[in-house]
Amino acid sequence: MEISDIEESDFEPVLALNEDSIPHVSRIGAQELRWFADNAAYVRVAKIEQKMAGFLIGLRPGTSYQSPNYRWFCQNYEDFAYIDRVAVSEWARRRGVADALYDDFNRTQSPVPRMTCEVNTRPANEGSMKFHQRLGFRQVGSQEAEGGAKEVAFLEKKL
User: Fold this and answer.
1) What CATH number has the domain bearing residue 105?
2) C-alpha 151: how far from its chain's center?
3) pLDDT of residue 110
4) Handedness of CA 61, 64, 70, 75 (dihedral sign)
5) Closest by alpha carbon to 57, among 17, 20, 114, 2?
6) Which of 110, 114, 150, 158 could form a disulfide linkage to 145, CB 3.0–4.6 angstroms apart?
7) Looking at residues 87-92, what average pLDDT do you find?
8) Is residue 26 a contact partner of residue 19, using CB atoms and an 8 Å limit?
9) How many structural domains compose the chain?
10) pTM of the model
């Protein structure tokens, strides 16, 4: 597996993988992905044999990103490494892709006191919740979104 910064040639497969991962991640378009590439602390892809296996987008405090979930962490923590989204191709699941991306994100953002993210509880994303619990994340809050159609659990892992 090779983890590298996103390149222009990765945009199409990343957007397709993001689309395949809805409703566990929100929809983004090329313009938003470009914004992340230009402004996020971390936008990296994992490839296995040059094929897109997964990606992770992470932010630190202080960006203009208006996601209510990111804003919740900005209001509640001074310093953190926030995972906005992570997605792994179906063919690459259970091959350590997400673990490798999380480790890489943590390594590149060090020192940071905590890693944060949210996981859907409505609609439930049980696989993601189990993954994060295995890594040592714990719930520190929750929030409804989209007029109550969605609910997320805010998670943190102290580093």
Assistant:
1) 3.40.630.30
2) 16
3) 85
4) positive
5) 17
6) 150
7) 97
8) no
9) 1
10) 0.95
Supply the pLDDT for residue 24.
Answer: 87
Q: Percentages helix, strand, coil for the chain, rounded to the nearest 5? A: 40, 35, 30
Q: Pick the closest to residue 52 from 107, 2, 102, 94 (CA basis).
A: 2
Q: Classify residue 66 as exposed, middle or buried by CB count within 10 Å of its CB (0-12, 13-18, 19+).
A: exposed
Helix residue spans in the chain (DSSP H): 11-20, 30-39, 68-76, 97-109, 126-134
CA 20 to chain centre: 15
Confidence of residue 54 (pLDDT cuts 50, 70, 90): very high
Backbone torsions φ then ψ of 87, nearest 5 degrees: -145, 140
Q: Are the C-beta atoms of residues 66 and 43 closer than 8 Å to each other?
A: no
Q: Note down the domain range covering 141.
A: 2-158
